[in-house]
Amino acid sequence: MLPKAELHVHIEGTLEPELLVRLAARNAIALPTTDVEALRRRYRFSDLQSFLDVYYESQAVLRTEEDFYDLAGAYLQRAAGQGVRRAEIFFDLQQHLDNEIEAGTVFSGLDRALRESRESHGVDAALIMCFLRDRGPEAAMRALRAAMPFRDRFIGVGLDSSELGHPPSRFRDVFAAAASEGLHRVAHAGEEGGPDYVWEALDDLHVERIDHGNRAMEDPALVERLRSEGIPLTVCPLSNVALKVVDRLDEHVLPRMLAEGLCVTLNSDDPAYFGGYVEDNFVAVREHLGLDEQALLTMAANSFDACFADEARREAWKAELHGTSSGSAPVP
Ligand code: ADE
Ligand code: ZN
Questions:
Q1: How far, in Å, CA of 111 to CA of 120, rounded?
Q2: Contact present, 62 and 99 (Cβ < 8 Å)
Q3: What does DSSP say about strands 124-132 and 184-189: parallel, antiparallel, or unpaired?
């Protein structure tokens, strides 16, 4: 198993049915069913929106600092078992605020799990707050304001949720405000939206990575832009199959992305719902897309190049990946 960074995972999407049932009981919240297998059977989706409906509904069980701590701790433990050295983790503060949870509760719980993680799981982790694009730019600005007292606990902002009809250009001001606070910027684009959404994410939001990016492959000029500027794509193959972005894994654009020389990384997105964590995505693309060891190594190396950790840590992880430990630079 290769060491890797995971750059596209929603912490709320790591809520396994077992933990969902436990948190619901702890917080006296009614679920449609407490049968874990029956919950799993609900995880069949026809598109992104059909998933988001279940995903947001499930988040109602997250109420206390302890809940957020348990959620992130469980993910980080699993991530360690999947070879993850660095995790840059999305969270949907806006949804929790709408559920009348205070920002401090969310930040404290997640942050405590992340701070303990290097020691207990050997995973270095950081948070990226996503704006929910279907709730509009004013709500995004309110979420940014609510998060600013906790500025030292997250490293960047992203853009997620229902894509079609909610183009990146609407979020220019809030991304500019985030940039002026020194926050990194990423955005989901080209999962269901067309190449124009990817152009807007680059030109209007000045993002440093594109999350998904599948439909960028429809536009040769955009492919050239992504290649020449080395913009990383955080691709999520098992998610794409689960949400019917592609009909079958063997039809995925990943091999074309690699052949075009794009900086592709592999990620799990919402692993509790899509049947696989990040290493499972590596195994699946090797089996179904015929990618060889070199391609997998390239994507693992890309994940370290594309992450927002400092250069010393990135180089140490890459040295570990290539089995060329320098001796003087232990993995932090
Ligand atoms: N939120 C959680 N998972 C998502 C995805 N795959 N696309 C958009 N928003 C999301
Ligand atoms: Zn995502």
A1: 14
A2: yes
A3: unpaired
Distance 141 CA to ligand 1 centre (A): 20
In whole angstroms, give the CA distance from residue 60 to residue 31. 10
Tell which atom from ligand 1 comes closest to the C-alpha of 55: 2
The DSSP code for 64 is S
The ligand that comes nearest to the alpha carbon of residue 12 is 1
pLDDT in tens, 195-217: 999 999 999 999 999 999 999 99
Instruction: Tell me the whole-structure pTM to 2 decimals.
Output: 0.96
* 261 C-alpha to ligand 1 centroid (Å): 26
Burial class (CB in 10 A: 0-12, 13-18, 19+), 326: exposed
Domains with residue ranges and CATH for the chain: 4-306 (3.20.20.140)
DSSP state of 269: B
What is d(CA 275, CA 205) in angstroms, rounded to the nearest whole number? Answer: 32
Question: Are the C-beta atoms of 331 and 85 separated by less than 8 Å?
Answer: yes
Query: How far apart are the CA of 220 and the centre of ligand 1, in A?
Result: 25
Q: β-strand 4-10 against 84-91: which pairing, if any?
A: parallel
Single-letter residue type at 125: A
Site to probe by mutation for ligand 1, drawn from 12, 49, 51, 57 as the one with most ligand atoms within 8 Å of Cβ, is 51
List pLDDT tens digits, range 11-62: 999 999 999 999 999 999 999 999 999 999 999 999 999 999 999 999 999 9
For residue 194, the tally of other CB atoms under 10 A from its CB is 16
Pocket lined around ligand 1, Cβ cut-off 6 Å = 10, 13, 48, 160-161, 188, 191, 239, 269-270
* Residues designated catalytic: 191
